[in-house]
Write a sequence for this structure.
């Protein structure tokens, strides 16, 4: 069985092996989408293929839509060449349930997928024309949190962004400049309204996207590279809703690959691109999923509420996002990622079998985080965190790794823990001194920067834009060294751009330093420290 349009003609062969195939007219969908595009998505990776693409497939199956999604990739072009083009834009979605069963569905809602860059002239022209089309309702994004940043850790604009400011919309190099250029094409053509919707797992994602686009547009307008009305158009006619997305889509798993091969599915080869994207013709993902979106779509939108998407106001989206990111999921994942790497784990689910790590995240969630959790009303925080700790993270069939989750930790700590700290500080009834395990996570991360596990073996920390800078401060610390370590740690712990607060100013740094001293006492010290403080 091959994952191609021609291969799907052998429907009986697929269905006999338990694969669900699209029931709608695939070719008619493609033709209608090319004439009247409604949804363009940028970021062709696993989360899109396993979630938004599947939502649109549901609408197509229900005959609530007759168009699909146009996909653009503005960063890792090999995804288009080696996955989308090779498999006629089809994806095999493998849902891994906590009871051990799986569902296998071919997702066929992508009508076209192209590289989005002026160097590919024909494909770039395609996107320009699509953006000009009045039928286009929304453009969505899963480009990762760092994809919205125009500045480096030093607070200065990236050189490529500075170059884009000067060059204008005709030959942009950075993705957000490309996006702004495409929106400018729409402005010039018809000034039709549009929604730009971030679906990335980051706080205030719509605001981040809006600020980036407006910054680029304003620079172009100031440099007389676009018409004077462009920035006003972005304010008046283009919406930037906020959203909260939640679905775990790990890298393609070898065990899933074997199961598919046993069924006769031939296209299981993992592709690792030159930009280190792990992708395959199939996507494996958990069953649980949430998408909450601010309902601001001036040119209309797909009826995604029929697929389980929550549409609401911005304040509610913000509350749901804070509930998840600051208390009920993301902090727990980060704690497990840090200590999982240090203790040699390679599967998040296995960490939940470790009584110390299980207790660590239960205490961080229920005891330290829950007193300041934001209740969005449309989702219950205790029910949500219960599902996370009892069903989602322990799912033995979810091949998610602490190494994957540890990626970009320096960019996550401030949101995932700093907001809880600030909430404690703002509540006179709460004592910041009651936070014992969140500081232990901070100490664990500094210990992680050393790249030495609890057995004293070297490991390679996951990619992080601040890794080299922060690792520098601990590079001369060895296992068995005695503290105090205030001199080495102060540049890290005082950095509010990492923790959202200066840990010295709020009085938490001495505790983190003390924990760190215990964590570096020698081989085995990490587990001993956890045994001492996780009670």
């Amino acid at each position: 069985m091959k994952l191609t349009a021609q291969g799907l003609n052998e429907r009986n062969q697929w269905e006999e092996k338990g694969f669900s195939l699209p029931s709608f007219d695939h070719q008619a969908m493609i033709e209608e989408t090319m004439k009247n595009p409604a949804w363009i998505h940028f970021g062709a990776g696993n989360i899109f293929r396993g979630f938004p693409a599947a939502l649109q497939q549901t609408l197509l199956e229900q005959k609530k839509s007759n168009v699909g999604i146009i996909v653009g990739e503005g960063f890792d072009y090999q995804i288009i060449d080696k996955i989308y083009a090779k498999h006629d834009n089809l994806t095999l979605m493998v849902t891994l349930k906590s009871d051990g069963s799986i569902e296998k569905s071919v997702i066929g809602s992508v009508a076209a997928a192209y590289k989005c860059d002026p160097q590919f002239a024909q494909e770039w022209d395609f996107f320009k024309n699509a953006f000009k089309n009045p039928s286009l309702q929304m453009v969505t994004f899963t480009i990762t949190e760092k994809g919205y940043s125009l500045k480096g850790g030093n607070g200065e604009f990236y050189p490529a962004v500075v170059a884009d400011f000067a060059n204008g919309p005709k030959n942009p190099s950075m993705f957000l400049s490309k996006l702004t250029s495409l929106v400018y094409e729409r402005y010039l053509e018809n000034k039709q309204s549009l929604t730009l919707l971030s679906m990335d797992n980051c706080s205030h994602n719509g605001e981040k996207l809006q600020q980036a686009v407006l910054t680029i547009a304003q620079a172009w307008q100031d440099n007389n590279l676009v018409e004077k009305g462009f920035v006003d158009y972005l304010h008046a006619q283009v919406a930037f809703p906020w959203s909260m997305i939640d679905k775990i889509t790990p890298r393609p798993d070898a065990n899933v690959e074997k199961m598919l091969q046993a069924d006769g599915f031939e296209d299981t080869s993992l592709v690792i691109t030159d930009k280190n994207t792990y992708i395959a013709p199939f996507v494996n993902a958990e069953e649980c999923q949430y998408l909450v979106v601010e309902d601001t779509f001036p040119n209309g939108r797909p009826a995604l509420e029929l697929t389980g998407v929550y549409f609401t106001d911005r304040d509610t989206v913000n509350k749901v996002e804070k509930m998840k990111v600051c208390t009920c999921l993301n902090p727990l994942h980060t704690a497990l990622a840090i200590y999982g790497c240090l203790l040699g784990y390679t599967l998040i689910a296995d960490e939940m079998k470790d009584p110390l790590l299980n207790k660590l995240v239960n205490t961080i969630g229920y005891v330290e985080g829950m007193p300041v959790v934001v209740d969005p009303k449309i989702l219950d925080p205790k029910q949500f965190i219960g599902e996370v700790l009892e069903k989602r993270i322990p799912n033995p069939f979810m091949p998610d790794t602490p190494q994957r989750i540890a990626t970009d930790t320096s960019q996550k700590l401030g949101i995932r823990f700093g907001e809880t700290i600030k909430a404690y500080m703002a509540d006179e009834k709460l004592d910041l001194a009651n936070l014992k395990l969140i500081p232990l996570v901070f100490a664990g991360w500094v210990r992680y920067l050393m790249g030495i596990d609890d057995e004293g073996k070297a490991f390679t920390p996951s990619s992080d834009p601040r890794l080299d800078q922060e690792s520098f401060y601990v590079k001369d610390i060895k296992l068995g060294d005695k503290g105090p370590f205030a001199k080495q740690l102060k540049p890290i712990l005082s950095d509010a751009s990492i923790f959202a607060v200066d840990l010295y100013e709020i009085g938490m740094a001495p505790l983190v330093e003390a924990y760190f001293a215990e964590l570096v006492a020698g081989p085995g010290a990490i587990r001993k420290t956890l045994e001492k403080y996780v009670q």
The radius of gyration is 24 Å.
